[in-house]
Amino acid sequence: MALPRIEGIDPELILKVHLSAPIQEETWRTAGFKVLAQEPGGILVLFSDDTELKAFRQRLGEYQKGVQGDAKNPAYNQLFAAIDDVRSLSASDRIGARLRADGKSSAADFDARENFTIDIELWDAPTQLDRQVRVQKIVEHVEKAGGEILSRYIGSTGLIVLRARMRGSVLRTLIELPAVACVDLPPIPDLGERDPPVVTVDDVSAPAPAVDAPLIGIVDSGSTDHPLIVPSLVDSIGVPEKLGTADVWGHGTKVAGIATFGDIRECIARGIFESPVRIISAKVVNDEGRFDDTDTIPDQMERAIRLLHQRGCRIVNIALGDAHRIPYDGGRVSPWAATLDTLARELDIVIIISAGNSSAGQRAPWGEEPEQITRTYPDYLVIPENRIVDPATAAIALTVGSLAHANGLPTDGSGGAELRAVTSLNLPTPVTRSGPGANDSIKPDLVDFGGTVLFDGMTQRIVSGDQYASAGMLTLRPDYLDGLLTSSTGTSMAAPRIAYKAALLLRAMPVASANMIRTLLALSANAPAEALQCLQKLGPDGQRACLGYGVPDIARALDSEERRVIFIADRQELATDQFALYRVPLPKEFQSTKGKRHIRVSLAFDPPVRHTRLEYLGLRLNYHLIRGMQPDAIFEYFRHRTKEEAPFEKLPGAAKCPLGPSRDLRGTSTLQRSTMTMHQNVDRYGDDYYLAVFAERRWAGEEIAHQRFAVAVELEHEAEVNIHQPLRVHLRA
Fold first, then answer.
1. Which residue is catalytic, options 119, 124, 221, 251?
2. What are the residue ranges of helices labelled H in 398-510?
3. Is 130 a known active-site residue?
4. Going by DSSP bridges, is the β-strand pair 454-456/461-463 parallel, antiparallel, or unpaired?
5. Which of 292, 422, 456, 541 has the highest Cβ tally under 10 A?
6. Residue 186's Cα: distance from chain center in Å?
7. Which one of 3.40.50.1820, 3.20.20.20, 3.40.50.2300, 3.40.50.200 gives the CATH number of domain 215-547?
């Protein structure tokens, strides 16, 4: 089993092990192995400098003797019983995803005469000296064979990367080396230059929005007289007044730019910065980005939001968080968050909050060394240290997490092998925070693009849109005399995208309640497939904690199609401890046409809240989707019964539609969205389903007799079938 010696390279053994059950790392260590990597599906990559595997063979021999004496299991049973398969890492295993996508899956696929520019990732070594020695031996091997090393990065926590140029004949030998973890084409930049594009006022036009366009209030660091935003900026206020209105700190202008225009790149491409919304700026932090020393934050927030509401704002964006970045630990909700919820309920407004960005330095969730982010992403996203921060725990306000808009690498190739992408399009931004919220409610509610970060090995820093425009979301530059555009990264850039989308809904439905706006945002949202795949190993709870209900699609929310329809009920009220029933008609074409189809339910309500209670919501709403039953029978199952009445039998299991997330998982959230997917004929359940909505009193007093809410139901069939027309005929009958 000893490996052949390759000139200049010490023999090592790298094994790929498939496990049926987890094995502690210490068990591998005592057997003579070091764990190099973990992969999905119970796969470990192990290293041993003992190519004869003496310690491992000794343990295997003991195990193969079977049960000895009074023992219940053979020696080392925990180790060997969990191993399904062991094999050496092959050359094919070392070929990366981009090369595989290019049709290269084995050494023979590389044309010996073709030139390749590749990134070579090496397995880690015990010490920094060992890492340097390992790199030098690979360098000598490549250069001796006629290749060229373009750049190299030797990290201190496991990341070792070289960028090289070589012929296919050299690459064929390289992937045979045990020290090589992966060989792949360098990541291709997928958006933007290192610096923001140069745009002048002469290049674009910026017409004023309509006089009745929806108003978004931006509670932040103030505003500037930026020429592209001035046409949309209706008013600027300071709370307190002594703060003034000027955006000296520079954050508010960036947020307002995205809230005003949505996608800045699209505006550049069209050559026109035309906004469908109007903006009012409320400055609540001083010129150093700190809150006022004399006012409490709840009082300051209440005054600012009431002033915005008096001026006509029904959407308020707050991309500010506690600078201490103390993650929510499951206790009581803060007075700040409770104030926002109370105002959202009282004023019937949509408040949008950023989930918060990860801490840096010693408190960074990926580890103290910046390089560790390349190794621990995305696992650290859901650890307690990376939970949402105040005021993102607010229950009625919409909390927004962030997705990467690209891998963030600049197209000019600057940075070499030392500049590493952490993620790619549609994956969670590496600095976004995760839920759950109070009482395990679903938080964040939604996600949208907020940019990404890169690891710069040259400077040993994590860099963002502040350093590389390609890594951030393009927006308006506060010091506009030095350039109109800049970029930035974080949930502060994702939240105003949701505010912009909420405003588009309000423009189309000007009398809609805040609950209906929230309902439709969630109804139209979907989590990107790439993000779900990336977070798969974290399970459904981890996916939900990072993505919430996903990214809203306003076109889906506003328009029905032949194969997709939406029913809505706005400004509904339900007596406490009672339930309401809504008929959901299913046309025959939806029930019986072959193909995948779904029923999706979305509900939003705004209960009283109290931050002094662990049970934060004074009321809860929830729902069942019932099939195969008539209304009278459903009422009989769910109606309140007196003590003298005999208990009624439980609702048949088949009658409850299997919606996901389940009733228990969504039950503590004020915004609930769940889906049932079907593949087979369901006409046996009849033409009408019924949505039963329940109001459950918690601590709310008798003075609160009703709870208002909005609800929407979507039917969609993947086949080209017209369900819209038969529903119109059915409902008019």
1. 251
2. 491-508
3. no
4. antiparallel
5. 422
6. 25
7. 3.40.50.200
